[in-house]
Amino acid sequence: MDIHALVSLDRTECAVQCNSKKKILEIISQVAAKSNPAIDEATVLNSLLSRERMGSTGIGNGIALPHGRLPGLTNVQAIVITSNPPIDFDALDNKPVDIFFALLVPEEQTEGHLQTLATVASKLSDKETVKAIRKASSSDDIITALE
After folding, report:
1. Looking at residue 65, which CATH number applies to its domain?
2. pLDDT per residue over 58-101, tens digit each?
3. Given its phi and psi angles, is residue 83 left (phi above 0), alpha (psi -120 to 50 degrees) or beta?
4. Is residue 69 helix, strand or coil?
5. Residues spanned by the domain of 26
6. Known catalytic residue at 4
7. Catalytic: which of 11, 21, 67, 113?
């Protein structure tokens, strides 16, 4: 899976202001629904919250990979958001999170979903990429950092 195929300007937000895990998941859901009329905001939020109840998707180093399965979705969609300030997300390292790379996947897709998560995690393990995302002052900058 090519990361460039996942990200787009209409699903990227830079330096959003929020103060809670639930609020950032609500923002992710709003961005997803706004960019694709076939996506229901409440369904996205419920899917993301259900996944978080199983364990935090905060992987450490200020990064979270919230993800959920959606019925009726035909292809994987990514929503990339940075927050300012970082927020408590119950991450594995107990540090606040400021980079959220959310994935929405078709309900029946399992193997592809895991491969996509691995691709994203690999990209976000690159220190220079993460540094560039944190320096971003616009959605364009975030997209450029990921490319």
Report:
1. 3.40.930.10
2. 999 999 999 998 988 888 889 999 999 999 999 999 999 999 99
3. beta
4. strand
5. 3-146
6. no
7. 67
